[in-house]
Specification:
Layout: H1 3-20, H2 34-40, E1 44-47, E2 66-72, E3 81-82, E4 86-90, E5 98-100, E6 121-128, H3 130-135, H4 143-153, E7 161-165, H5 175-179, H6 194-203, E8 208-211, H7 219-222, H8 228-235, E9 239-242, E10 255-260, E11 270-271, E12 273-278
Parallel strand pairs: 2-3, 6-7, 7-8, 8-9
Antiparallel strand pairs: 1-12, 2-4, 5-9, 5-11, 6-10, 10-12
């Protein structure tokens, strides 16, 4: 083979291997994220958000939502006019799947508008205790549950979002089922524990956490009008998300979570749109 023909052969061979290689991550210095977006089209997007409306399950102290149609497509159906569709919503910030910023409980700490967008796209960790909750609705996650997770999946990543899967969201949208109150007025639903939250926030330095129930604390504690675990999380100047759903459709590790919410000035809480991106 002549040198000229051998050179052509090498060029063709190299081109073949370059074409055959899988798409690699974009160089951060390239200034082009389109390739990442293209890769994501093959991933699963899992909505972790309940649709909210009047009458949905909520914390016992919240008033119900009201919705008014101000403008409707046709005359006569809107209180202010017609020609387009516009509604007026009245609900507390902590309505439906929602975000609690630190200022919700702790005066002087961050409000919604002070949470950085960098804290809204995070590695997702799912700690699954749903089978134990099925056996005992008052079950709270233990440090052994977390250690078992880490033994199987590796150390919980710093900066991650940790979600507690209990499958309690399958009781939605029945308020009585979600509260699971006994004849003495005591609610029975699962929750976090102080030992686990301390480990996650102080040892693993996670960014945020979330759960499927209406409260961070288990029902038997909330029934006493006490909220020590929610107070703890927010006192760390971190945020949390309540009333998540569809955690049974997400793997324990490997996904990303996106927590999106409006930016009200000095906001103490707001409904959020939360979803997972799963490879």
């Amino acid at each position: 083979m002549s040198i000229w023909k051998y050179g052509i052969f090498l060029v063709c061979l190299c081109s073949f291997f370059l074409i055959s290689l899988p798409v690699q991550a974009v160089d951060p210095g390239s200034g082009n994220l389109t390739q990442i977006w293209q890769q994501m089209q093959d991933y699963r997007f899992v909505d972790l958000t309940h649709t909210f409306e009047p009458g949905i399950p909520h914390w016992k102290g919240d008033p119900d939502e009201t919705v008014e149609t101000l403008y409707s497509y046709e005359p006569g159906n809107g209180t202010l006019g017609s020609g387009f569709y516009m509604q007026y919503y009245c609900h507390v910030g902590q309505w439906g799947t929602h975000v609690d910023p630190p200022a919700h409980f702790i005066k002087g700490l961050r409000t919604l508008d002070q949470i950085s967008p960098r804290e809204m796209i995070l590695p997702l960790v799912v700690i699954d205790i749903h089978e134990k909750v099925y056996q005992n609705p008052d079950y709270v996650v233990t440090i052994d549950d977390v250690k078992d997770w880490e033994e199987k999946n590796g150390q919980i990543p710093e900066g991650s979002f940790v979600a507690l899967r209990t499958d309690w969201s399958k009781r939605w949208p029945d308020q009585d089922e979600m509260q699971n109150t006994d004849s003495f007025g005591v609610a029975h639903y699962p929750g976090w524990s102080q030992e686990v939250l301390t480990y996650l926030y102080e040892k693993r330095n996670i960014t945020a956490s979330g759960h499927e129930t209406t409260d961070t604390d288990p029902g038997i504690v909330v029934s006493q009008d006490k909220y020590p675990l929610e107070t703890y999380i927010l006192s760390q100047n971190k945020y949390q998300v309540e009333l998540l759903t569809n955690l049974d459709q997400v793997s324990e590790v490997g996904a990303l979570i996106v927590v999106a919410f409006p930016k009200p000035l000095d906001g103490s809480g707001f409904p959020a749109r939360v979803f997972a991106i799963c490879p």
